[in-house]
Design brief:
Elements (H helix, E strand, L loop, with lengths): L1 H7 L2 H9 L2 H14 L13 E2 L4 E3 L18 E3 L7 E2 L12 E3 L7 E2 L12 E3 L21 E3 L10 H4 L7 E3 L21 E3 L12 H9 L40 H49 L6 H6 L1
Parallel strand pairs: 2-3, 3-5, 4-6, 5-7, 7-8, 8-9, 9-10
Antiparallel strand pairs: 1-2
Helix pairs in contact: 1-3
Bound molecules: 2-acetamido-2-deoxy-beta-D-glucopyranose.
2-acetamido-2-deoxy-beta-D-glucopyranose binds next to loops.
Membrane topology: Single-pass membrane protein
Protein name: Leucine-rich repeat-containing protein 26
GO molecular function, one term: transmembrane transporter binding
C-alpha cells in the first residue's frame, strides 16, 4: 500500500516508466518504491555513502549496475571505478534532479539510446576511460541542460551528430584518446555554446572529411590549449601537419558539396533544357522548310503560273477583249 501511494506522488516518473522498455520497468518500479525513505532522512542508495549536499558516493564499490534507490535528493552521483558494463533504458529513473554523473572507469561497453532519459537537469557527465565503441542516435539528446561531456579514453571510431543531437548549453566536450579519423560535418553545428573541445590522441586523417573541423578550429582561435598539437597521421603529404595550419586552400581539391536546392535546380535544368532545345530545333526546322518550299514554288512554278494566269496586255488578254 505504501509503495503504491509513493508511486502516485510521481506521475511524471510513472509516465516515463511506461514509455520505457517493459523488461526494465519492473526493476525500476521496485527501485522507485524503495527510494521513498521516511520523510526527513536523506534518501541514499544502500551501497553508497551520502553527504548532506546531495552527493551519493558510490565510487570503488565493485558495483555491477547503477544502484537502486536513486531519488530526487541525489544531486551528484559518483559511480566511478565500478563494473557497470551496460546502461539499460531508464537506468537513472528517479534521479531526475541529478546535476552531476561520474561513470569513469567502469569498462562500460554499451549505453542504450534511452539510458539517460529523465536526466533533463544533468549538467556534467563523465564517461571517460571506458570501452565505448559506438553511441546510438539520440543517446545524449535528452540532456538539454548539459554543460560538460567527457567521452575521453574510449574506442570511438565514429561519432554521429545524431548521438549528441542539439545540446544548446554544452560548453566543454572531450573526445581525446579515441579512434576518430574525422568529425562528422553536422556534429559541431548542433553545439552553439561549445568553447572547449579536446581532441588530442585521435588518428586524424587530413582528407576532405576533416574540412569542417579545420575551419571550426580556425574560427575558434583558442578552442583547446592543445589545438596546435593536433596533427594529421594521414595522408602521406600532410603527415604531422597541424590541423590548424590547414586553410581552405589545402582543401581546394575537395569537391564542394551542392546544397539540396542547387541539386534540385541542376536536376530540373537538364530535362528542361533538353526539351527546350528540342522544341527550338523543331521550330527552326519547320520555319526553314516552309521558307524553302515557298522559294521553290516561286522559282519553279512562277513562269508556269504566269503562263496560265496572264496579266492585262498579254496576247491572251487581248484575245479575250
Ligand atoms: C568516495 O568514497 C571513497 C571511499 O569509498 C573515497 O576514497 C573518496 O574520497 C570519496 N569521494 C568523495 C568525493 O568524497
Amino acid at each position: 500500500m505504501r509503495s503504491l501511494s509513493s508511486l502516485s506522488r510521481r506521475p511524471s516518473q510513472m509516465l516515463l516508466l511506461l514509455l520505457l522498455s517493459p523488461w526494465s520497468v519492473w526493476a525500476q518500479l521496485s527501485a522507485a518504491a524503495a527510494s521513498s525513505g521516511t520523510p526527513g532522512t536523506p534518501d541514499c542508495p544502500e551501497a553508497c555513502a551520502c553527504a548532506p549536499g546531495g552527493q551519493a558516493n558510490c565510487s570503488r564499490r565493485a558495483l555491477p549496475a547503477v544502484p537502486a534507490g536513486l531519488s530526487r535528493r541525489v544531486r551528484a552521483l559518483l559511480l566511478d571505478h565500478n563494473r557497470v558494463r551496460a546502461l539499460p533504458p531508464g537506468a537513472f529513473v528517479g534521479a531526475d534532479t541529478l546535476l552531476r554523473l561520474d561513470l569513469r572507469e567502469n569498462g562500460l561497453r554499451w549505453v542504450h539510446a534511452r539510458a539517460f532519459w529523465s536526466l533533463g537537469a544533468l549538467q556534467q557527465l563523465d564517461l571517460s576511460a571506458n570501452q565505448l565503441e559506438a553511441l546510438a542516435p539520440g543517446t545524449f539528446s535528452p540532456l538539454r541542460a548539459l554543460r560538460s561531456l567527457s567521452l575521453a579514453g574510449n574506442r570511438l571510431a565514429r561519432l554521429e551528430p545524431a548521438a549528441l543531437g542539439a545540446l544548446p548549453l554544452l560548453y566543454a566536450l572531450s573526445l581525446q584518446d579515441n579512434e576518430l579519423p574525422a568529425l562528422a560535418p553536422g556534429l559541431l553545428a548542433g553545439l552553439p555554446a561549445l568553447r572547449a573541445l579536446r581532441l588530442r590522441g585521435n588518428p586524424w586523417v587530413c582528407g576532405c572529411a576533416l574540412r569542417p573541423l579545420c575551419s571550426w578550429l580556425r574560427r575558434h582561435p583558442r578552442p583547446a590549449p592543445e589545438a596546435e598539437t593536433l596533427l594529421c597521421v594521414l595522408p602521406g603529404r600532410l603527415t604531422l601537419r597541424p590541423l590548424t595550419a590547414l586553410t581552405d586552400a589545402a582543401f581546394g581539391h575537395c569537391a564542394q558539396r551542392l546544397a539540396p536546392r542547387d541539386l534540385a535546380v541542376v536536376y530540373a535544368l537538364g530535362p528542361v533544357s533538353f526539351l527546350a532545345s528540342l522544341a527550338a530545333c523543331l521550330a527552326l526546322g519547320s520555319v526553314l522548310t516552309a521558307c524553302r518550299t515557298r522559294r521553290w514554288r516561286d522559282t519553279a512554278l512562277g513562269p508556269l503560273r504566269r503562263a496560265l494566269d496572264p496579266g492585262p496586255g498579254s496576247p491572251a488578254a487581248a484575245a479575250q477583249d
